[in-house]
Amino acid sequence: MAIHPIVIYGEPVLHRRAEKVTEFDEELATLVADMFETLEASNGVGLAAPQIGVGRQVFVYDADDDMGVRRHGVFINPVLVASKIPETRPDPEDESEGCLSVPSLDFPLKRADRVTINGVDERGETVSLTTEGWFARIMQHEFDHLQGTLYVDRLDKRWSKKWKKAQTAHGYDQPGKSWMPGVDPDPFGH
Fold first, then answer.
1. 65 DSSP assignment
2. Annotated catalytic, 142?
3. pLDDT in the model for residue 157
């Protein structure tokens, strides 16, 4: 297993739809194991393959749900069905998101409160999950990565303007940037 660098906004692989996985082999098992190790070193709650420069439809997660139950798993080639996203403004206190590929920044974003996600694991076995609240947010965030969308691409007009200023200030508009979990300082101060 190995920890991989996490690529930062502006890297082309983050901005295109990931390819479906067709081979369930040792290479895929190694990728999933590496992603879990990278996730743990990053202190994150989810990690999509494009975030480590691999354009494949794979994401891993390891976090507590709203009931305090630890959830740990992988989705490959997922399909996500979400409840309607409320049309109210996002609450900066309760609805802020961050992303390992947008280090040190977080912005409020409205998400659906409930999702069902279906896919397969690294052995090709069916996995399914229906969840609400915070954990539903994680599922939507990671699923979006596989579509080539980062959470900052979904911000409303007010927060998008603040993101664009921060993006320029941090230089998150050029490819070729990354950070190494466990080596570089934790950008979120964990």
1. -
2. yes
3. 94
